[in-house]
Amino acid sequence: MNLSNHPAFVAYAITCVALCCNLIFLWAYSGAVRSKAESTPNPEDASRFSSRLADVDPPEIARVLRAHANAQATIVPFLALGLVYVLAGGPPGAAAWYFTVFTVARWLHSWAYLGSRQPLRTVCFVVAAISLLALVLHVLWLLIAAG
Amino acid sequence: MNLSNHPAFVAYAITCVALCCNLIFLWAYSGAVRSKAESTPNPEDASRFSSRLADVDPPEIARVLRAHANAQATIVPFLALGLVYVLAGGPPGAAAWYFTVFTVARWLHSWAYLGSRQPLRTVCFVVAAISLLALVLHVLWLLIAAG
Amino acid sequence: MNLSNHPAFVAYAITCVALCCNLIFLWAYSGAVRSKAESTPNPEDASRFSSRLADVDPPEIARVLRAHANAQATIVPFLALGLVYVLAGGPPGAAAWYFTVFTVARWLHSWAYLGSRQPLRTVCFVVAAISLLALVLHVLWLLIAAG
């Protein structure tokens, strides 16, 4: 079992690393911002890290968590469908397009969200959504063509 | 590498498309409801889209986000375990049952959640949870039988 | 298509079951705590289950949901990258280390979070994060070595 010389799989593997790093970065960054804001919802952290206890996160933490939620909501379906595409024998050329456009758009979306950059954030969301839709349609096409 | 003539994989691929569309629909719908409610947690959107700035989402947006969180919490483990089932050589007949029941129950759950339909929402959650549990047990059984 | 005699895949399959059970347990437990706290954000549940309607979850429910969010944010990338590792022909020996350390650390993290146990919670988060980082680097190494 070794697909590491299979072009579409290699494209998927690189994409998976890049998108998982996006998710991991946003989650770790929410922790860093929380630490700097000295605000926590956990009583056991308030005493330990001399943070203020707050049921509602301050705006700068809430923003990172919204960026993470947005990333998770789009990246997880993309990774699931991307693997189905590869295992269904999808052509590497189209994969490279979908994967590259989506990954670049999602990283830019995170950067735009964290920096309050509009309309860039909405543009990136729409571009990534179009890549995701194209992937859905191509997977359906692969299934119909093989059926 | 082409599993598109492998019955259990085809069942998984169709399921993956249907469940990812469920997740994508709920996320897109939360955006549509937000747009109609003209409420946003982002200052940069309030000025741009003439929306009110609100730290806490109004009830109609919060409901869609809860439906999405519920979908994500159940669909993501199902898709991970479903692929393991297929790659472990799980029989296509049982797969068709687990996958169909889960997918129908989850789409109905979303419809019931968005429309405040009880007890349908709870019934769908339980039916989907039973399919998920059956899949977990079948994957364990495949591993034990092969070991 | 049957990888159930492939050691790295078997390690992944067991890990996938253990981590999905962690996610499913936390989600189900949030429901159990909600039921005991008799608090719900849904008007249709308040009338049906004689619960109080509350826009903001009480602290004991919010804690379980934070533990779940933390689990989801780390487990989902780990499962995606773990499968890429296996399909890229990653050695089973290293897989066993990454998978075991991450899975034990994440289950302990959930236990520590639910019971307000510090510094155990932070230690488990960091140990799991190191396993995740090691997996990312190994996947990159496999891709470079094959390229």
Using only CA atoms, what is the Rg of chain A?
A: 19 Å
Mean pLDDT of chain A: 95
Please provide the count of β strands of chain A: 2
Judged by helices, strands and strand pairing, the structural class of chain A is mainly alpha
Oligomerization state = homotrimer
Distance between the termini of chain A: 26 Å
Give the SSE order of chain A as H and E letters: HEHEHHH
Major pleated sheet of chain A? 2 strands, parallel
| % residues in beta strands of chain A | under 5%
Low-confidence sequence ranges of chain A: none
Q: Helical element count of chain A?
A: 5
The main sheet of chain A orders its strands as 1-2
User: What overall form of chain A do the CA principal axes indicate?
Assistant: elongated
Proportion in helices of chain A: over 70%
The greatest interface between two protein chains, and residues involved on each side, is: A-B, 36 and 31 residues
Descriptors for this entry?
homotrimer, mainly alpha, two-stranded parallel ribbon
Report on the structure:
3 copies of one chain form a homotrimer. In chain A, helix 1 packs parallel to helix 4 (92-114) and helix 4 packs antiparallel against helix 5 (120-146). With 147 residues, chain A is an all-alpha fold. In chain A, helix 2 links the parallel strand 1 and strand 2. A two-stranded parallel sheet of chain A has the order 1-2. The first copy, chain A, is 79% helix and 3% strand. The first copy, chain A, has 5 helices and 2 strands. The A-B interface holds A 3, 6, 8-9, 56, 59, 62-63, 66, 72-74, 76-77, 80-81, 83-84, 86-89, 116-119, 121, 129, 132, 136, 139-140, 142-143, 146-147 and B 1-5, 9-10, 12-14, 16-17, 20-21, 23-24, 27-28, 41-45, 48, 55-56, 68, 72, 76, 79, 83.
